[in-house]
Design goal:
Blueprint lengths: L1 E7 L3 H12 L4 E4 L14 E2 L2 E2 L4 E2 L3 H19 L4 E9 L2 H13 L24 E10 L1 H14 L3 E2 L8 E3 L4 E3 L2 E8 L19 E9 L8 E3 L3 E6 L2 E5 L13 H12 L7 E10 L8 E4 L6 E5 L5 H17 L18
Parallel strand pairs: 1-2, 1-11, 2-8, 6-13, 11-18
Antiparallel strand pairs: 3-7, 4-5, 6-7, 9-10, 10-11, 12-15, 12-16, 13-14, 14-15, 17-18
């Protein structure tokens, strides 16, 4: 069977890249390891155009926002599912933060993404003596529904292999790759954190982090916006909320911990007084690079092999932009890839 591309991994990166390639008329077969816990199965899918630490725009948000909205809209039509939930984030401000907020909105020209004025609109069970900073053009993407629905779409099209990829069965020739019964022009690895065990990308500088998230039931809260303080509280419907997230760089496994559960609940109760019930706790490994930028491109020594990885915490926002850029490049090598994300940064002489 001859196809244009083999995509390995069907988390957020693999889903978006496969969708973009198919939209460009290319034939694709996607492999997905059923034994791997994907970050997109855990992640909240938060869309935040602002970096709260420095109060600046998220990297490339001006370029990425329209692509994000159109991509998720296209996927919603294709899959007949609501995936994209636009909304606002209200940031709980300390006394210092309130002054900092208004200064930075002007200094960093954040008018498209934030309200200049501090909001003092009261919210039941939420404490904020210094008011709230309001972020516009935010929201969430249901990543779990996206990946599961897209895998069903691929299965119907006979474009999906639910099996672990075996590197010892991959054969390379000057013009194509051969894997089992497939001949392809190129193979693209979108393996998430598992990419650090890929023999073709051993010299890439991965810096993955473990994150844990809770799903709570809080019947009295009645929130519509996402609330952000030390942790975020995200409404997902039917009195359910996702609360996250922790960061750990030492023990990188998918086991949930009591330490993370306690940390998240303690931080939550600093600003929310409503009673909550823990429904679920999940842990996953965020695929990130040493410089917190994605890694995109073809291997300089094996141009039949590519990688699309390292989307990290901003993946739901930036993923569609980079997937579209990479798909265009794969169809037309003269198309650009953002230099900060290009794989060539790891192969400079």
């Amino acid at each position: 069977m001859k196809v244009d591309f083999i995509v390995v991994g069907q988390g957020l990166a693999g889903t978006l890249l496969a969708h973009k390639l198919i939209s460009l008329g290319k034939s694709v077969v996607v492999f997905d390891d059923p034994g791997q816990v994907k970050a997109s199965n855990v992640a909240a899918g938060l869309l935040n155009p602002i970096g709260f630490k420095r109060m600046n725009k998220s990297w490339l948000v001006d370029e990425a926002l329209a692509e994000m909205e159109s991509t998720y809209s296209d996927l919603e039509k294709l899959l007949s599912e609501q995936l994209y939930f636009p909304g606002k984030i209200v940031r709980i401000l300390s006394e210092d933060n309130a002054i900092h907020w208004q200064e930075k909105v002007f200094a960093n020209q954040l008018f498209d993404y934030t309200n200049v004025e501090i909001s003092y609109l009261s919210r039941k069970y939420i404490t904020s003596q210094n008011g709230f900073g309001v972020v516009k053009k935010a929201g969430r993407v249901d990543l779990q529904k996206l990946t599961s629905s897209y895998s069903k779409f691929l299965i119907k099209q006979q474009l999906f292999r639910n099996e672990k990829f075996k590197f010892d069965e991959l054969q390379l020739s000057s013009e194509l790759v051969i894997y089992k019964d497939l001949n392809a022009e190129k193979i693209i690895f979108c393996e998430g954190a598992a990419a650090s065990r890929n023999p073709y990308f051993e010299n890439l500088k991965f810096k993955h982090s473990k994150g844990e998230i809770l799903e709570l039931k809080i019947p009295d809260l009645n929130l519509e916006e996402i609330v952000s303080s030390e942790v975020f509280v995200m409404p997902v419907g039917k009195d359910r909320y996702k609360v996250g997230a922790t960061y750990s760089w030492e023990i990188l496994d998918e086991q949930t911990t009591e330490t993370a559960r306690t940390e998240l609940l303690d931080k939550l109760h600093h600003f929310i007084s409503a009673k909550s019930e823990v429904l679920n706790q999940k842990a996953g490994i965020r695929p990130t690079m040493h410089d917190r930028k994605p890694v995109i491109g073809l291997h300089p020594h094996f141009p039949q092999i590519g990688i699309f990885n390292g989307l990290g915490p901003k993946g739901a926002l930036l993923g569609p932009y980079f997937a579209g850029q990479f798909a265009q490049f794969l169809c037309n090598p003269s198309s650009p890839i953002v230099s900060e994300a290009h794989i060539k940064r790891y192969f400079r002489s």
